[in-house]
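Sample intake sheet
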Amino acid sequence: MTKKPNEMTIVEAARALRARELTVRELRDACAAAAHAKNPELNAFLELFPADERAIEAAQIRIDTEKESAPLLCGIPLAIKDNILIEGKTASAASKMLENYKATYDATVVKKLKDAGALFLGRTNMDEFAMGSSTEHSAFGATKNPHDTLRVPGGSSGGSAAAVAAHLCIAALGSDTGGSIRQPAAYTGLVGLKPTYGAVSRSGLIALGSSLDQIGPLAKTVEDARIIYETIHGIDSLDSTTIPDGLYEVREIPKHLRIGVPRHLLKEGVDADVLDAFNTTLGKLITAGHTLVDVDLPTSSHALAAYYVIQPAEVSTNLARLDGMRYGHAVRGNTLLDDYVDSRTEGFGEETRRRVLLGTFVLSSGYIDAYYRKADAARAVLRREYDEAFKVADVIAFPTTPSPAFKFGEKSDPLSMYLGDIFTITANLTGMPALSIPMGTVERNGKKLPVGIHFTAPHQAENILFTIGQATEGL
């Protein structure tokens, strides 16, 4: 059966455009029609942009004239998470605080995508300021999982994930601070990449945790994720944390990979059928010629605690500017203090306020040594443990999440929500790249729900991730 244009991958759509089986206009309109039809139910997009006639025409001319040499992303409709700036468009980070903010410049990743001829279909829903794992914490309503609308799509990039999984666009950008690309990818049956810290510019990304955030792709295939990554990565003068290629040791990609598995971290907390799917996938990789290696990562059991000290501390710092005076939603009270308190109370949602308060506490005099500096020390130990593990393994494998997508309201206790990040946060703490790949489905209440397998690689070893990802995809 022939795929509809909006159901195509980047590679398939690019081939169809060059073969004149499809025009840029037809591809864009097919995605827009699907988005307008399904978005009222899913709430994946906060805004669908009107057709950019100039961009559509320019992309078509470029494909017609440059043909095979035109970038593969030329004419491809993408969705962009609502915390990534597109000049002239609203970028609210799904918060009332920035509800009326219009970007005055393009994020570096957006500029690179524009240079490649990509089209932007709209901005996608997310947890407010990227704080959350379910997209329930948006000021503009929750996003639903296309596989079961009673369940969450994950977060914080849940809108981008739902848009791609429901074929409302060809691919999307998200941001990942503790798993916010990879976890929704697992919940919706997609490929999600968190690049090496500094591989992709954060200029134009509304900051959450500055030492943790990375922009990356949500895509239907590993090859599509690679195409987007290779387009957006690179050093940027506007972001001093971006790194040049080759800063870290370049690793050769062996034909058969050594897959490190920290079994000691899988003894409890993972749903039995998710663990079965994980072991089955590893078994198939062994059959394909790859080998399993036991690795020990003892500090990983403390990673979640360290993350939820470091991340709120950076949240508190980054959101301090949104005070009703300089930026954001403003409320005027009887005193100056009332102005600050009322603006931030009205402008921020409950989860954002929780993390700002927690972060302010761990940075306060008398507690910074007891909490923040200890968490930062644990982070350094974790990096060393991963470096040791990579002496015997090429990648390290986990299930992406301990369970499939959960129902709305099921994790109203914040701690139970935070525990879902246990396997993804280490890549952000260490700065290493990580990839989530679909590994089949498990059944809940008669619905087949996707689950993912998660691979972490050494710094700047994204190519190893793409290799193991494509091997897993082909099983």
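Comment: Residues 82 and 91 are 5 Å apart (CA to CA). The mean pLDDT is 96.
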